[in-house]
Design a protein that fits this description.
Blueprint: H1 8-58, H2 74-81, E1 90-91, E2 102-103, H3 118-121, E3 127-129, H4 137-142, H5 145-149, E4 171-175, E5 194-199, E6 204-208
Antiparallel strand pairs: 1-2, 3-4, 4-5, 5-6
Length: about 240
Amino acid sequence: MYRRGFTLIELLVVIAIIAILAAMLFPVFARARESGRKTVCLSNLRQIGVAFIMYADDADEGFPNTGDPYLWMGRRWRWPLQPYLAMVGRRDPNAPADPNRSAGFTPQILLCPSDIVAPASWDSTSYAYSAAFYHTPAQTNAMTTVDLYAGAPPPCVTQRLADVVFPSRKVVGGEWLTNHEAGVKDGWWGWGGARSYLFVDGHVKYLQATGILPANNGFPDPNLTVDGVRGVDVR
């Protein structure tokens, strides 16, 4: 019995249909994958929030303060919180005084799975800690963006849980960059994109930068929240 095979035209039509279906489905798969990564990121921050509370319980309700004005950077605040995060790591023996460098460091929950910058640039630390928790509200109101990384910041002063007036509206930490939106890499000093945030009461939320109130430096920057720990980052 004779069986007719597919003609070239028919094969081309089938291939074209498969290509169209793939073009339609790949973005869906990509969004689903990114949604899963975002969930992991939020879970990371929840665990970090527990570590902050455990630290405060052991420190007379004080938030981390090592006297380092640049403690807000992820590579620096990880050290005082490391015992509460079940992490393994030590200072780089070639530069033991440099908190930005480590040896045998396993980032685990400090690395957002969508962050492609941190592994190469920030020793695999994706999240920042608000400088408002080791500066007084008056200090925070007087500080500039430059003070946070290269200026003349005031002395560090430990803030305590009782000092936080609105724990459900004050950010204590969060993603430094927009990691879950393609093509946008704005951080706390930019109004583009969205990021995951951790609040003092322990809840986490993914928010557009425009959902954060302007800080004293005019950016959605929880470091310099107006009135510091007495203020709010969201309405």
